[in-house]
Amino acid sequence: MLKTIAVMTSGGDSPGMNAATRAVVRTAIREGARIFGICNGYKGLLADDLFEMNTRSVSDIIQRGGTVLGTARSKEFETPEGRTMAYENLKKRDIQGLVVIGGDGSLRGAQALTEEHPIAVVGLPGTIDNDIYGMDYTIGSDTASNTIIDAINKLRDTASAHQRIAILEVMGRRCGWLALIAGISGGAEYILVPEEKFDLDKICDEISEMYKESRKRYVLIVIAEGAGSGIEIGKIIEERTGIDTRASVLGHIQRGGSPTMVDRLNASLLGQQATRALISGVSNVVFSLKRGAPVSVNLHDAVTKKKRLDPEYLRMAEALA
Ligand code: ADP
């Protein structure tokens, strides 16, 4: 059994990271382990910015977005020398295990650390992108998709009033999950994602037809940033169709906000599972959910294999538009 562990949040922040931190800290203490909090991810670990936590340290945070532990990016940690220094800062406090809450980059960092040094690591997927292999949930993805749906609803009102085309660009450089899920749930006519080719000429022709035949009063298009710039695509569509088009870029609003019930509950559940497992000797595992059930994914697989968009959702997006 591990006697002392540590927790960090790293990389891009996501709503629910605090709920996960709270669950990790309280589970560790309940299981009889000491727990250190690492401030500002790997950067803080290298700066020796650690403090011992107790149950009170995580009071009043379950409802907050962002992360009270802070997060950062660290180039130095990407070098073996940096990771040795990071390990030394853990070793001098007798920390034997680490819970990393972060996206694929942070989990990759955790894997490099445990490969090179005798430290156990478990991961909790903290990212709004839901782009990690082997699971269909990441902490923050529910809150972010609901934020997008809220924006879609508002755009729909104004687009409908003016019979315009409304375009919403959302986050997702390599993965279109957010655009796809929020687009389907928001009733978008078109959803453009980096994983799927699209034909802009065809889209323009179809929209022109829809307006001509009065089949649509307005059209809503959701674009993942990795599929192209919403502003640029909007200009092209307006030029080719002659229909008034407005593009909005949602930006960092998607990252913030109080986490939804789903993100709070799942972060609590996964935080508890990961911590219990780590203390009992488990390492190299990322904890999440698949089809609603708990799943533990090998850390190496989670950071090396590519997650694909669910083809059923892709078909649905087209069929219901
Ligand atoms: P996210 O976790 O949100 O994907 P990043 O990709 O920025 O965010 O990763 C966060 C941090 O994890 C980086 O700043 C770096 O310190 C560490 N990291 C990322 N990739 C690696 C890697 N291949 N090896 C070691 N550390 C890494």
Architecture overview:
Helix content is 42%, strand content 18%. With 321 residues, the chain is α/β, with parallel strands linked by helices. The protein starts with a strand and ends with a helix. The structure holds adenosine-5'-diphosphate.
Describe the structure in brief.
This protein has 321 residues and is an alpha/beta fold. It contains 11 helices and 11 strands. Bound molecules: adenosine-5'-diphosphate.
Layout of helices and strands, plus pairs?
Blueprint: E1 4-10, H1 17-30, E2 34-38, H2 41-46, E3 50-52, H3 80-91, E4 97-102, H4 104-116, E5 120-125, H5 141-162, E6 165-170, H6 177-186, E7 190-192, H7 200-212, E8 219-224, H8 230-241, E9 245-249, H9 261-279, E10 285-290, E11 293-298, H10 299-304, H11 311-319
Parallel strand pairs: 1-2, 1-4, 4-5, 5-10, 6-8, 6-9, 7-8
Antiparallel strand pairs: 2-3, 10-11
Helix pairs in contact: 1-9, 5-6, 6-11, 7-8
Adenosine-5'-diphosphate binds next to helix 4.
H/E element string? Answer: EHEHEHEHEHEHEHEHEHEEHH
Shape call: elongated
How large is the share of residues in beta strands?
15-25%
CA-based gyration radius: 22 Å
Q: Percent of residues in helical segments?
A: 40-55%
Number of helices: 11
**Might you state the CATH topology name of the largest domain?**
Rossmann fold
Strand order of the largest sheet: 3-2-1-4-5-10-11
Main sheet, how many strands, which sense, barrel?
7 strands, mixed
List low-confidence stretches. none
Number of strands: 11
* CATH classification class of the largest domain: Alpha Beta
Distance between the termini: 53 Å
How does CATH name the architecture of the largest domain? 3-Layer(aba) Sandwich
Q: How much is the average pLDDT?
A: 97
Distinct small molecules: adenosine-5'-diphosphate
